[in-house]
UniProtKB/TrEMBL annotation:
Pfam family, one: Prok-JAB
Gene Ontology biological-process entries: proteolysis
Alphabetical list of CDD domains matching this protein: MPN_like
A molecular function GO annotation: metalloexopeptidase activity
Keywords recorded for this protein, A-Z: Hydrolase, Metal-binding, Metalloprotease, Protease, Zinc
Domain MPN: 3-141
InterPro entries in the cross-refs: JAB_dom_prok, JAMM/MPN+_dom, MPN, VirAsm_ModProt
Listed name of the protein: MPN domain-containing protein
Key word Metal-binding present: yes
């Protein structure tokens, strides 16, 4: 998968993460409808509030904040972003329980070394299968 992130998106992401300290920052990454030679082409970073109960070590995006972007036909949410104020930019056990695995890219910015921020991007796959069982029904008259 080829991925391009605009310089402005990167800068906005970094600024939002620094301002959110000591909390984890979060946001989404948007691709415009314009054509691109990249599979994922990030034009815009949208900072969102971290609604987690313990925002210094986890993040939570409120679906209501996300909804306007998910329903916008002209632009697509192609990435979920959050920062790790004190940890490396590797998904935590908590991160791997995410429900955002349907979004193609998952970005983590580590501010462990403030003068040398480390941004990494991942694709997450849900490994546990979804169970189902058959129900009965009748067709009424
Ligand atoms: Zn994390």
């Amino acid at each position: 998968m080829s991925i391009l992130i605009s310089r402005k998106s990167y800068d906005d992401m970094l600024t939002h993460s620094m301002r959110s300290l000591p909390n984890e920052a979060c946001g989404i990454l948007i691709q415009d409808a314009s054509s691109s030679e990249y599979d994922v082409h990030i034009h815009t970073f949208i900072p969102l509030h971290n609604h987690a109960a313990h925002p210094t070590r986890e993040f939570s995006i409120h679906p209501v904040e996300l909804l306007p972007y998910l329903t916008d036909k002209r632009r697509t949410v192609v990435g979920i972003f959050h920062s790790h104020p004190k940890a490396a930019s590797i998904p935590s056990a908590e991160d791997l329980t995410t429900l955002w695995h349907t979004i193609p890219t998952y970005w983590i910015l580590s501010l462990q070394q403030r003068e040398n921020p480390d941004l990494q991007v991942y694709a997450l796959k849900k490994t546990t299968t979804t169970a189902y069982h058959k129900l009965s029904f009748v067709i009424g008259q």
